[in-house]
Amino acid sequence: MMRPEVQGTLQARSAPPDALGRVLSDLRISVIDRCNFRCPYCMPEEAYPADHAFQRARERLGFEEIERIARAFVSLGVRKLRLTGGEPLLRRDLPDLVARLAAIEGVEDLALTSNGALLPKFARPLREAGLRRVTLSMDSVDPDIFRRMSGGRGELADAEAAIAAAERAGFGPLKINCVVMRGVNDDGILDLVARFRGSGHVVRFIEYMDVGTVNRWRDDRVVPGAELVQRIDARWPLEAMPRDRMSTSRRWRFRDGAGELGFINSVTEPFCGGCTRARLSADGKLYTCLFAHAGHDLRALLRAGESDAALRATVAGIWSHRGDRYSERRAELRAAGVLEHVEMYRIGG
Ligand code: SAM
Ligand code: SF4
Ligand code: SF4
Known about the structure:
By secondary structure, the protein is an alpha/beta fold. It has helices at residues 4-11, 63-75, 94-102, 119-129, 143-149, 156-168, 189-196, 225-235, 298-303, 308-320, 330-335, 344-347, and strands at 26-30, 80-84, 109-114, 133-137, 175-180, 202-207, 238-240, 250-254, 260-264, 277-280, 285-287, 296-297. A twelve-stranded mixed sheet has the order 7-8-9-6-5-4-3-2-1-10-11-12. The longest helix has 13 residues, at 63-75. It is globular, with a radius of gyration of 20 Å. Bound molecules: S-adenosylmethionine and iron/sulfur cluster (2 copies).
């Protein structure tokens, strides 16, 4: 017989809001914890030697399991799915997963975040499978700095080839993510802006965050988004665009009509109040915050033979208890020694 709490949740059309009144609307799905880059802010080379023990294939969720979990989330009100990693294009047969997810009724947006190195090979099959949007990471347009920001693994020419392949496959306009680290790539931001002004693609500057523990984050490496706005505005005048309360990004546009920019100021201007995202790691842990130190094991539930109804009820229950707002409490929590966070490459940003 069905447990009464399961029955109750089944009747609801969406998950109850979390403990701070935030509704569940996005799910980020990490499909693999491996990466072909070693960006210093995410997977610094010295912390991940060649023999590092990444998850094995059987530890990862299979496509059927990912689809089941995604269906549970969509039935609870999620409308946006984003595939991420590690580097998601390292996951074999990714277009097959995209096709499964694209077929779920209720999914309004299906996107991918990638470093792009493998995109020329996969752009078209992903598009044909139903992927709608692509976000590419590109931290510099200087070949040497680009290489350094990828931990010596990436080439600027390949990132440019990825952009061209995405355009050809019909993914434009793209979002281009740039993590800014003071003293590393911040001198080059005007060149990056110049590259994309007038292209239709939207560059989004992301403040360097204290995600994970291995990047040895220091706050003097963070360049506040407001400082970047000032620097760009002095060269190409900008104006603020209306703010969407639920958006993580502050949007500005060029006054001369050459496009827009986004600023994800998660350190200096936290946006936890509008955080409607859940994150699923490749091994099936559900994280309710980018800075959580532990996740809820959904894989165990699936592999124990639990029903879809039980899965849905579990997710709804986890969401309803969610009270995370790390970025708003960063100073207080860091001072109290709360420094254990899941690594970014496990849950994909
Ligand atoms: N490998 C893919 C990529 O780089 O696009 C997807 C996964 S990556 C973890 C997702 C995003 O997180 C990237 O745009 C990356 O730049 C960002 N990111 C990783 N570590 C970060 C950090 N410490 N602070 C801010 N953003 C970070
Ligand atoms: Fe890999 Fe992306 Fe992390 Fe860079 S940011 S190391 S590309 S997962
Ligand atoms: Fe969301 Fe956690 Fe980031 Fe706040 S700190 S915006 S709750 S992921």
